[in-house]
Every structure is written in structure tokens, then in C-alpha cells.
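FORM 12-B: Structure-to-Sequence Request
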């Protein structure tokens, strides 16, 4: 089964729901606390932020980075991110992350709550893209839901990829890709791809720091 239609619906969900995107951060203290972990992470130099959404993480990255390039596929959330982060060191780009290839390398590639939206069959290619975006000595840093978060979702069966059903305030419904990675399995999978990785649980989430397979500068 092809996951293209599922990914198209996922993008439509985030475009239509841009105004609701920040609601979980307003309602959940654990998410607000999670934002503060940026100060504990090895974020430095030129940073590439994938799937930046409305920019909840972007200003925190900018405070630690020389520059930030923040990419998302949805123009509606990018408009909110630009308003939230009026910094001359931050550049926002609209691009489909499954097609876009970074034109340069970065010291840090960061993505929060994005890995769970990547269909499993696309993961090796995704990680190859991340590796190609990293400068020698660079690190990928990622944050996402752990398996326990599945209890809060309306999980769908018989889809082209693990998926959940999301509803917006207007009653519209959208399928999204939602993969609840087990940290141990994810560690094994990345190790098999040649990455050096450490993933630690934080409440119901996890934080990963990974270095790509050795490559020539």
C-alpha cells in the first residue's frame, strides 16, 4: 500500500489546524517543561530544525545557535512561527521534508515530534538525509512521544503506515502517520544504520542524541 495519500492528509491536517497547534503546550505542563530541556542539549553552531511547526522550539534553539534554518511543509504554521521568532539569525523555509534536500551542512539537526510522523519504510532515507545535512562532528537531536502516548490517540488499523485519526474544532477528521517508537528498538534500528545514538526517556517522551556513520568531510 502507498503512503502518499496518508502523508497528503497529514499535511492538510496541520495546515487546517494551525490555529489549534499550540493548544497542547498551553494545556499540558509536561510539554512546557519539556521545552526547557533545550538548555541541557548540545545544540550549537548552525542549526537545521525540521518540521518546526509554529516555532515552539525555534526561539529556544536560536538562543543557543549561531543561526537557525527552520523548515516546515505548512505555510500556515510557518506564519505563526515567523511571528513568534522575529530574529535576524533565523530563516524559515516552506518545503516537503520527504522531497527537500538541504543545500548545505549544519552543526546540529533538530526535530521535535516529527520522527513519529515518518512512515517506517521512509525512515532509512530520512536518516540518510539527516546524515547528509550534518557537518563533520555534527549531531542530530530529536524529541518525540514514547509508546505510552498511544493511549491518547485514536489508532487506525489497515493503513499504509501506522496511523491515527485527528479531529479539528470544526469537526473535520484527518488521518496522520503516528509511529510510537520504543527507545530500545529505535536505538537498535539506528545502530544498524551505522549511527551512534543515546536515547533517554523523559516522562512519557524520549530525547535522542545521535551521530551519523563516519563520513569524509
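FORM 12-B RESPONSE
SEQUENCE OUT:
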Amino acid at each position: 500500500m502507498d503512503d502518499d495519500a496518508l502523508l497528503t492528509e497529514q499535511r492538510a491536517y496541520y495546515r487546517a489546524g494551525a490555529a489549534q497547534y499550540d493548544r497542547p503546550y498551553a494545556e499540558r505542563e509536561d510539554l512546557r517543561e519539556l521545552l526547557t530541556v533545550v538548555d541541557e542539549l548540545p545544540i550549537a553552531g548552525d542549526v537545521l530544525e525540521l518540521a518546526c511547526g509554529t516555532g515552539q522550539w525555534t526561539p529556544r534553539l536560536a538562543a543557543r545557535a549561531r543561526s537557525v534554518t527552520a523548515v516546515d511543509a505548512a505555510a500556515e504554521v510557518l506564519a505563526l512561527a515567523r511571528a513568534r521568532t522575529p530574529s535576524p539569525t533565523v530563516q524559515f523555509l516552506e518545503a516537503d521534508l520527504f522531497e527537500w534536500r538541504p543545500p548545505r551542512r549544519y552543526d546540529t539537526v533538530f526535530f521535535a515530534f516529527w520522527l513519529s510522523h515518518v512512515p517506517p519504510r521512509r525512515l532509512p532515507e530520512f536518516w540518510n538525509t539527516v546524515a547528509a545535512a550534518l557537518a563533520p562532528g555534527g549531531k542530530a537531536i530529536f524529541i518525540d512521544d514514547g509508546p505510552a502516548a498511544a493511549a491518547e490517540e485514536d489508532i487506525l488499523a489497515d493503513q499504509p503506515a501506522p496511523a491515527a485519526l485527528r479531529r479539528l474544532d470544526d469537526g473535520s477528521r484527518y488521518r496522520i502517520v503516528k509511529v510510537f517508537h520504543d527507545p530500545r528498538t529505535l536505538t537498535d534500528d539506528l545502530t544498524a544504520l551505522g549511527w551512534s545514538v543515546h536515547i533517554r526517556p523523559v516522562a512519557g517522551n524520549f530525547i535522542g542524541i545521535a551521530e551519523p556513520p563516519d563520513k569524509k568531510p
